[in-house]
Amino acid sequence: MVSLSRLAVLCVAVLFTCGLSFAQDAPAPTQPPEKNVEKARNPVVVIETSLGAIKAELWPDKAPVTVANFLAYTNEKFYDGLIFHRVIDGFMIQGGGFNAKMEQKNTTHDPIKNEATADKKNLRGTLAMARTAVVDSATSQFFINLADNAFLDHKDNTPAGFGYCAFGKVIEGLDIVDKIGKAQTVNRAGYQDVPAQTIEIKSVRVAE
């Protein structure tokens, strides 16, 4: 006859063994599969001009309102057939507002908030929004800096010191930008620094 104490030891041994077996047989907790999330690339636009193509990367993380506005005009094909109407060698080239007859095209969106900040500098090759003396007045017109134009950078929140918002940079075709910058200019239709030979913006498209 098995004593009670002996029986108790056997029961404990059986329970321990069964528990170990169940633990071994239970499926290991699974980790959720890692998502292969690729960081979204910044949008790139191609500005086709009568002197060649300019490719620019935009910065939606730095200037979301400005980039959204530029892309809205781009997707509407607003810039097609307009010109670079203001060119100053060693400074910048400006376009996106006038046709070859120096007639200003009516914009299709309200002026945007000026997102200029001290960290978005108007360095050579950057795209920035043109505006009037009013801080939040930019619409469709933009310019490309031909040099490091620190005097255009944000300094303070006064109208004189707010600066101009850089929202992208040229990644291909800076030689085309420089070529446009060397264009001979004249006074035309009451405007200064107009290229004597029309420099057309044939199209602006988001790169595939």
Q: Can you characterise this structure?
A:
- The protein is α+β, with helices and mostly antiparallel strands.
- It has one domain (44-206): Cyclophilin (Beta Barrel), CATH 2.40.100.10.
- The chain is built from three helices and ten strands; from the N terminus they run αββαβββββαβββ.
- The protein has helices at 4-25, 64-75, 174-181; strands at residues 44-49, 52-58, 82-88, 92-95, 126-129, 142-145, 166-172, 185-188, 191-195, 200-206.
- The strands form two sheets. The protein has an eight-stranded antiparallel beta barrel. A two-stranded antiparallel sheet has the order 8-9.
- A hairpin with a 2-residue loop joins strand 1 and strand 2.
- The longest helix has 22 residues, at 4-25.
- The chain is globular and about 35 Å long.
- The chain starts with a helix and ends with a strand.
- Residues 1-30 have low confidence and may be disordered.
CATH architecture: Beta Barrel
Secondary-structure content class: alpha+beta
- Outline the biggest β-sheet: 8 strands, antiparallel, barrel
Low-pLDDT residue intervals, each spanning 5 or more residues: 1-30
What's the CATH superfamily, by name? Cyclophilin-like
Rg for CA atoms: 31 Å
How far is the N terminus from the C terminus? 87 Å
As a percent range, the share of strand residues is: 25-35%
Say what the CATH topology is: Cyclophilin
Number of helices: 3
Helix content: 10-25%
What sequence of helices (H) and strands (E) makes up the elements? Answer: HEEHEEEEEHEEE
Report the CATH C-level class.
Answer: Mainly Beta
| Total domain modules | 1
Q: What's the arrangement of strands in the largest beta sheet?
A: 1-2-7-5-6-4-3-10
Taking all residues together, what is the mean pLDDT? Answer: 87
What sort of overall outline do the alpha carbons produce when their principal axes are compared?
globular
